[in-house]
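Quick check before the chapter quiz. The format below is the same one you will see on the exam, so make sure you can read both the input and the output lines.
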Amino acid sequence: MSAGTSPEAAAPLDIWADVVGQEDAVAVLRHAVADPTAMTHAWLLTGPPGSGRSVAARAFAADLIASSTPRSDGEPTSGGELAVARAGAAERVLRGVHPDLHVVATDKTVITVAEVRDLVTLAQRSPAESGWRVIVVEDADRIVERSANALLKAIEEPPPRTVWVLCAPSEQDVITTVRSRCRHVTLRVPTAEAVAGLLVRRHGVDGGEALLAARAAQSHIGLATSLALRPEARARRARVLEIASRVRGVGDAILAAGELVEVATAQATASAAERDATERAALLRALGADGEATLPPTVRAQVRQLEDDQKRRAKRAVVDGLDRAMTDLLSFYRDVLVVQLGAEVSLVNEAQAADVRAVAASSTPEGTLARMDAIGVARTRLAGNVAPLLAVEAMTVALRPQGEGVRR
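Here is the expected output.
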C-alpha cells in the first residue's frame, strides 16, 4: 500500500483468506487476538504436512501485530489513518518483511543450539512498531533436546511483549518440556474442495483442474499448487505412478529404483546449486575473504562448516523427494484397494483411473496391502539413514507381481 493511499481507497485485507478448511483453529486464534485474557505467550500449531501450519502461523502473527499497530506509546492516530496503518502492517507481515516478525524455517536436519540462542536473544528485544514481537518456528519438530533446553527458559519466563508460535506435524514431534508450556491448536487436513477453491481464487486455475490437483496432492496445499501450476511436476508424478504398472520383474524393479533415486538427486542438486554458491559468496564477503585465492585457516574452518551444512541439507532434500514419491505410490495402491473392495469413495489419482483398475484386476487386496507395507518399510528405512538406493530397490522388488506373496 502506497503512502498516499487514502483510508477510503484502502481495500480490506482478509488476513485469514489463505487458511483454508481450518475454521475451528482460526476461531481460537482470532479469539486470542481479540480477547487479551485468551492470549498466551507460546503456541503450538500442529497438523499433517500440507495442512497450512505455517500459513496459519503467519496469519495469526499478522492479525496480532496489525491489531496492536501503532504501539501504545506511539502518536495518537485518527480512525482512517489507523485502518491504513494496520492494513499495511498486516500486508508486510504476510509478505515476511515486518520488523516485529521473525520466521525460522530450515532445510537442515535439526535446528542447532546456536540458532535457538539467537532466537532467545531476539525475543528479549522490544517490538519495533507494534505491541507484539512474534517469533514463528515452522520446523519446531527439528529442535532437538539440547536446543530445546536453550529455548525452555525463554518460554517459561518470556518477555511481556513476545509471542512464540511453534509449528510441528504433531505434539509428539516436539520435546515434552517445550510442548507442555505451549497452548496447543490442532489443524486438520482440509478438504480437496477447499484446497481447489484456494487454487482458483489465488492462481486463477480452472475449477476442474484445481480439484484434480488437490486430490492428487491429498489436500497438501503446497503440492497441489505445484501440480496445478507446473506441468513438469505433473509429468514427474505420473512417471512415479507408472512404476506400479511398469515393474514386472527384478530387472524392472532395479531400473525403476535407480531412476527414482537419480531424479530425486538431480532435483536436490539443481535446487541447491545456486543457493549454495550464494551462501558461500556471502560468507566469504562477511569474513573479508572475498576474491582471495588461498583462504586463511580460520576462514577455511568456517567455509568447511558451511559446506558440511549444505551437504546435510542436500541429503535431506534427496530423502524428502523420495519420500514424496513413495507417498504418491501409496496413494496409487490406496486407489487400487478402493477398486478391489468396491468402496464408494473418490479416487485420489483420477487421471490414472485406467491403470488403477488394471492393477486392481490383476492382483488381490492382500497383495495390495503387502505392497503398501513394503512402501511403509522403505520410508522407515530412509528416515533411519539407510542408503537411499538400497531402500528403494528393496521396495520396488516387493512391488513386482512375483513379490505379492499371496496365491492367486
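If your answer matched, good. Residues 1-11 have pLDDT under 50 and may be disordered.
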